[in-house]
């Protein structure tokens, strides 16, 4: 991708890159033709929508692409193949060297990601769609964990949770225009965890849940309640040995069985699927390896 110099060129590059990223996240061929050039996004973007029905993806088991950002700031997407694996990667754009985190969102509750929140190192948070990017209010540089598990608080839109340096977890409910309402405290003590992840329902009650790994390698399940003031039930331990992984993330339902799954990257760079079982006592089945390569450590962000 051609790099532009100067402030004016940087703004032009940002607009082009934003449109290309949003197009890839949305998976819309029409949007690709309208907002991207063939040098940025392939002329045909594969769909993750199963055929046969008008509204095939339940919001409690969403189907998002896996977005991967490497050390150079290049962004790639991997589309689920519907069988628990991922299709070959597609390059989207460059220029994400300063992004600290990103999270897809499904605000319209169709089970697909129509936008994403991106957190930059300078503390700014942007909402990205096929129409462009929009700067949101707030001091977002204070948060070291940022993700959207879905609708946690009973509003139509997806919510965002963020952890501050003191270990306090906060919930931000979204409005219809994707701006975020003032934060609500979830609780202290979340600095006990080195990874927090989750997207959609893990327990079979159609409410989004999350998991968190502590420093001893124990994975804890926080079952969603559907109440913004108390979004999670008491934690439940669901396994040991999770320190074998250096990253946990979720893009929802990879195999289209109606249950959300968890992805985990081990320290050698292998990516594993922990298939959702739909049970609060045992939310995941036996892990299976994704692909035949150990190359996933090349990415500094996976979301």
Overview of the molecule:
The longest helix is centred in the first third of the chain and has 21 residues, at 6-26. The strands form five sheets. The protein has a four-stranded antiparallel beta sheet, covered by helices on one side. It has a four-stranded antiparallel beta sheet with strand order 4-5-6-7, covered by helices on one side. A four-stranded antiparallel beta sheet has the order 8-9-10-11, with no helix packed on it. The chain is mostly beta strands and 303 residues long. It has helices at residues 6-26, 29-35, and strands at 66-70, 75-78, 90-93, 99-105, 115-120, 125-129, 132-136, 145-150, 159-163, 169-173, 184-187, 193-197, 210-214, 219-222, 236-239, 245-252, 261-266, 271-274, 288-290, 299-302. Helix content is 9%, strand content 33%.
What attributes does this structure have?
mainly beta; 303 residues; 9% helix; single chain; four-stranded antiparallel beta sheet
Radius of gyration: 18 Å
Uncertain stretches: 1-20, 24-54
Shape: globular
Helix content: under 10%
Total number of beta strands: 20
The largest pleated sheet is described as: 4 strands, antiparallel
Averaged pLDDT, please?
Answer: 83
**Sequence of secondary-structure elements:** HHEEEEEEEEEEEEEEEEEEEE
Percent strand: 25-35%
Spatial ordering of strands, largest sheet: 3-2-1-20
Task: Give the count of helical stretches.
Answer: 2
Kindly name the structural category.
Answer: mainly beta
- What gap, in angstroms, lies between the N and C termini? 22 Å
């Amino acid at each position: 991708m051609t790099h532009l110099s100067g402030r004016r060129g940087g703004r032009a590059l940002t607009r082009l890159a934003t449109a290309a990223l949003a197009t890839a996240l949305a998976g819309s061929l029409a949007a690709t033709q309208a907002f991207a050039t063939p040098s940025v996004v392939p002329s045909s973007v594969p769909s993750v929508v199963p055929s046969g029905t008008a509204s095939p993806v339940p919001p409690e088991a969403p189907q998002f692409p896996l977005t991967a950002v490497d050390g150079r700031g290049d962004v790639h997407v991997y589309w689920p193949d519907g069988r628990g694996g991922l299709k070959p990667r597609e390059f989207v754009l460059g220029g994400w060297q300063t992004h600290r985190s990103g999270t897809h969102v499904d605000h319209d509750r169709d089970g697909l990601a129509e936008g994403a929140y991106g957190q930059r190192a300078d503390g700014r948070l942007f909402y990205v769609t096929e129409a462009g990017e929009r700067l949101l209010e707030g001091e977002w540089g204070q948060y070291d964990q940022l993700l959207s598990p879905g609708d946690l608080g009973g509003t139509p839109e997806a919510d965002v949770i963020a952890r501050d340096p003191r270990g306090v977890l906060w919930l931000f409910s979204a409005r219809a225009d994707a701006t975020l309402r003032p934060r609500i405290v979830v609780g202290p003590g979340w600095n006990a965890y080195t990874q927090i992840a989750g997207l959609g329902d893990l327990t079979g009650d159609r409410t989004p849940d999350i998991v968190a790994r502590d420093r001893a390698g124990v994975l804890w399940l926080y079952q969603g309640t559907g109440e913004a003031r108390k979004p999670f039930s008491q934690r439940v331990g669901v396994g040991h040995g999770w320190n074998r992984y250096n990253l946990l993330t979720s893009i929802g339902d990879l195999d289209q069985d109606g249950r959300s799954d968890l992805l985990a990257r081990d320290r050698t760079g292998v990516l594993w699927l922990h298939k959702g079982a739909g049970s609060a006592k045992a939310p995941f089945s036996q892990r299976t390896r994704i692909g035949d390569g150990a190359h996933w450590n090349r990415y500094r962000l996976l979301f």
